[in-house]
């Protein structure tokens, strides 16, 4: 007999550009770090690397300018600057707390799956008043070898919350993140905080932020 389950059973959130409006700050920190190294870079240099994690975010720009760096050293310095400048300034994006509360009320498992390092994830979540204990799992760049657009981080997040990725909604803001969600077999809600809807056309749903998320993203049906 044909029955229907209400999905998703879990929601996996990217962090930067989804939970926190952090792009301006990491870009400023990265520009300042490169300036300390004697290289002048432009904010638009970083656009192709949004959502890929800071190793690629910084390394990609260094490669553009043929500027050799030790990625661990420059990343640490960038995070030092970043964690200082976000104090009292980093804010949650619209609807974040309310959307998460709705997920919890509906009994959905929730996870963070960020291409950023653990240090940045903890700093961001603390600054926007979202303790890690609020989530059923927190996955960071250190937990996977292959970064977005590979699906590994979303597959691991789903596994950590005891679900199949196809039963999860991924919330993303970057082209690489949407590609990773698709590769994982998840449906994807794309927030147009970093890229346009056209650039994020491979997603299933779109919204300006979580306050404007379509109601159907938390309840679709699947024939079984």
Number of domains: 2
Low-confidence stretches: none
Q: How are the strands of the largest sheet arranged?
A: 4-3-2-5-6-7
Per DSSP E runs of 2 or more residues, the count of β-strands stands at 8
Strand content: 5-15%
What's the Cα radius of gyration? Answer: 17 Å
Give the CATH level 1 class of the largest domain: Alpha Beta
The helix-strand sequence is EEHHHHEHEHEHEEE
Structural class per helix/strand content?
alpha/beta
Can you characterise this structure?
The chain has 224 residues and is α/β, with parallel strands linked by helices. It folds into 2 domains: 152 residues, 3-Layer(aba) Sandwich (Rossmann fold); 63 residues. 35% of the residues lie in helices and 15% in strands. The strands form 2 sheets. A 6-stranded parallel beta sheet has the order 4-3-2-5-6-7, with helices on both faces. A two-stranded antiparallel ribbon has the order 1-8. β3, α5 and β4 form a beta-alpha-beta unit. The chain is globular and about 55 Å long. The termini are close together.
Describe the structure using short key phrases.
224 residues, two-stranded antiparallel sheet, 7 helices, 6-stranded parallel beta sheet, Rossmann fold
Describe the structure concisely.
The protein is α/β, with parallel strands linked by helices. Helices cover 35% and strands 15% of the residues.
Question: What's the arrangement of secondary structure elements?
Answer:
Elements: E1 4-7, E2 10-13, H1 23-36, H2 54-64, H3 71-85, H4 96-105, E3 109-113, H5 118-127, E4 137-139, H6 152-160, E5 168-172, H7 175-184, E6 187-191, E7 205-207, E8 220-223
Parallel strand pairs: 2-3, 2-5, 3-4, 5-6, 6-7
Antiparallel strand pairs: 1-8
Helix pairs in contact: 1-3, 2-3
């Amino acid at each position: 007999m044909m029955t229907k389950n209400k999905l998703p059973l879990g929601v996996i959130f990217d962090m930067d550009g989804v939970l926190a409006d952090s792009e301006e700050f990491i870009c400023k920190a990265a520009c300042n770090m490169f300036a300390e190294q004697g290289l002048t870079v432009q904010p638009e240099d970083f656009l192709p690397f949004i959502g890929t994690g800071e190793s690629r975010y910084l390394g990609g720009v260094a490669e553009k300018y043929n500027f050799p760096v030790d990625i661990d050293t420059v990343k640490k310095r960038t995070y030092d600057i970043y964690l200082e400048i976000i104090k009292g300034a980093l804010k949650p994006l619209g609807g974040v707390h309310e959307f998460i509360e709705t997920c919890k009320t509906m009994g959905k498992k929730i996870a963070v799956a960020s291409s950023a390092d653990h240090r940045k994830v903890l700093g961001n979540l603390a600054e926007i008043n979202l303790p890690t204990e609020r989530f059923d799992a927190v996955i960071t760049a250190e937990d996977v070898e292959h970064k977005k657009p590979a699906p590994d981080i979303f597959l691991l997040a789903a596994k950590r919350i005891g679900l199949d990725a196809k039963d999860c909604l991924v919330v993303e803001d970057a082209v690489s993140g949407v590609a990773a969600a698709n590769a994982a077999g998840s449906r994807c809600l794309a927030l147009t905080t970093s890229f346009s809807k056209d650039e994020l056309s491979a997603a299933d749903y779109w919204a300006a932020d979580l306050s404007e998320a379509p109601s159907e993203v938390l309840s679709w049906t699947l024939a079984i």
